Amino acid sequence: MKRVLVIGNSFGQDATRYLHGISRAGGREIRVVNLHIGGCSLYRHYRNMISEEAVYSYEINGHQTGLLVSLKKALLMEEWDFVVMQQCSPQSGEYDKYQPYLDELAAYVRRLCPPAKIVMQMTWTFAHDCKRFKLTPFETPEQMLPAIEDAYARAAESINAHFVIPSGRAMWKLYGEIGAETYRDGFHCHMGHSRYMLACMWFMAFTGKGVDDNAFADFDTEVSEEMVERVHRIATETMQEAGFEIK
Hints:
Blueprint: E1 2-7, H1 10-16, H2 19-25, E2 30-36, H3 42-51, E3 56-60, E4 63-69, H4 71-77, E5 82-85, H5 101-112, E6 117-121, H6 141-159, E7 163-165, H7 167-178, H8 193-207, H9 225-241
Parallel strand pairs: 1-2, 1-5, 5-6, 6-7
Antiparallel strand pairs: 2-3, 3-4
Helix pairs in contact: 3-5, 7-8, 7-9, 8-9
């Protein structure tokens, strides 16, 4: 069993909702914990690291537990194989807002969890006309996406991340095919197919195993067979384009 800890927010919640179920269906069990604070930025994670306050909702395998923990306690609770970090979505295309907080967080993780590999999830842009663009220097997803990709590439190099999960690129592809149905509110994942697509990508990233024959179907909302095939295709193509070997 692989153990994954996400120093996250609602985008980490989106990506991990179905990960455990997919992993069990694929015969490669992954235990995943998301440390959730809505909209949490790297700066705020850094401040929480310093304060050691118990302010994170501890979500196990896509489910809330009601527990509140500090970052330090979460890092020490289990022998993590991977620790995933990401920037909050409005700041994801501005690399100057990643640092020095990301470097400090990565150093902290390596001190407390020496064996763990540090991974980043590339977050995604918003739908056209989403009001959250007002929180960014961008006006359109076409402007924002290249900035996000550049920022995550620079961030991964700075902390020597093991890899970057290209969730943002897959969300953009899905948006190009189905439009607003990619999201539930213009920026969060659709509760069914988009969350499923990202979890498939995480499963492939951590196991190297494909999902075309994965039988998982325990969705929170209906997902058609056609949509399952679509997200399998986009997830696999995106991972392969990013250099992952999928078997």
